[in-house]
Fold these 3 entries.
Entry 1:
Amino acid sequence: MSAALVWIPVALVVALAMELWAMLLHGRVWHSLLWRLHRSHHRKRRGALEANDALSVLHAPIAIAAILHGCTAAPSLLREIFFGVGIGMTLFGVAYLVVHDGLVHGRLPVQALARIPYFARVRDAHLVHHARGARGPYGLFLGPWELGWQTKQTKRTSS
């Protein structure tokens, strides 16, 4: 059996799970315990970097360790799972960087992505988050869904 049959599905599941993890961190940790760092992201940026950028690299050592273990450990199912976890985390990190920092905040030249309707909705949902301050949506890739859900909840409670 090919190792790729293990790590490819693991990588895809982990990449998707990272969006849920990021949504939880954003709403419950970044907007509370780590607000001192994250608030720089809700203000006009001065220069190329902001304090919030430190939060982007928190998961990199975990992903690197998982990939290294997946490359150097003795052959086993667990080794392939570790490799898939590291690849999935990395895929999510790169996608987040391109869409969030690039498309939404213009820090990378990827504005053409907005021609894809889904990415335009992702951008718009994240900009709603910035306009609201500390309120959701907290997800990036699930931001449009989260915003729609919040709108339905608001209509139900105000009816």
Note: The chain has one domain: 4-158.
Entry 2:
Amino acid sequence: MRILYRAGFLVLAIFLILFAVSNRDTVSVAFWPLPFLVDMPLYLLCVLSLVIGTLIGVATAWMAGHGKRRELRSRRRRIEALERELTATQSQIGNHSEPATRQLRPLVKRESVNAR
């Protein structure tokens, strides 16, 4: 699995390097409501767009999972409380029970072996 991860990373790195070398031309980026004009290489604009999009996607997924994480925390606390209660109950039962070495007598009398 580690080899596949490294091979994929290597392919992605080579692709990004080739993309950066091929797209070194400068482009002007204007942000409409702001009076700024930024000149940057095209590859940098593309990479920054991908990074910002990824961060927005990760943040959205993290916020969407808030309810599930809260429910899991609640269930984990409930399980821990039930395990503590079970342990306490088992220790109480262990203290009040009779020793297991006592054997019960059979209800039916056995005939002696010599009576046959």
Note: The mean pLDDT is 87.
Entry 3:
Amino acid sequence: MPDGFEEAFSSGSAVALGYFDGVHLGHRKLFSLLRGLAEETGVVAVAHTFSNTPKSKIFATGGDGLITTLAERCALIHKAGVENVAVFPFTDSLAAMKAGDFLEEYVSRILNAKVVLAGEDYHFGANREGDSEFLTRWAEGKGIRPVLVPPELFNDRVISSSWIRERILSGDMITAHELLGRPVSYEGEVMRGRGLGGTLGFPTANIGIPSGKVIPDFGVYTSFLRFEDNYYPAVSNIGLRPTVSDNEVYPLLETTALGVKLELYGKRITVYPIGQLRKEKRFESIEELRIQVMKDVDEARAYHGSHPDYSNIFKDVL
């Protein structure tokens, strides 16, 4: 641990336990309770997470399949009103640590917990041996107040990071947005491409999918592009561009802002895919692709024209 880390919690803390990928509506409910209990108890509020991906969070599709990078996750936790985030490296030794040892070392000794919060389905320790009942018994034996938080529901189903991830993988950004309480987002530096978008009549700002983030179903999406705190209606393509390249390995996110020309090379932008218009496909010729791109742009413009008041959807984004 860094020097001074334990001293930061010398007066005690209220600790939220979890990985908190996505910082979705269920997580934010837990953080709201955390803030109130910390204030009531007179201790600092802290959310616990890991700097790298636990094995239980690694998925076969979409790389690590995370909704948020570590930096995004921490920033969203701060935005939810929790000032302190305890980030621990997920090492092999930690992965093999017994549930009780984890609580003693990290929650009790390092974080000096006086209150501990977790979701009712929380599991931890080697082979996920620890659960909410284990946590409650341990906390009560240490004089720590345990608080188990019921799940947040959407259409009578528990909101979970795995559900959100599955929706993103299938291209259902609308449901993912509803479960997160904000649009799905991808941030990156605009790179120079082949200039194909310009030859088709619609120049694109191209970014890579950040390493470790879940990759949406390949296709064309209505979207918004954020640059310097301004939001622009847009249309985006996510995929490997099979019509123009046979050897693409890493997906590219190509975005065209509608109705405005922006000089974005080398600039950082954020793209919010809102809804999928169609899946990616290989066209027989560049001309056939150009005709389809024109249709995609027209459809995206029609969508944005029928949804002119979009300001509220960005109130909880970073």
Note: The longest helix spans residues 286-306.
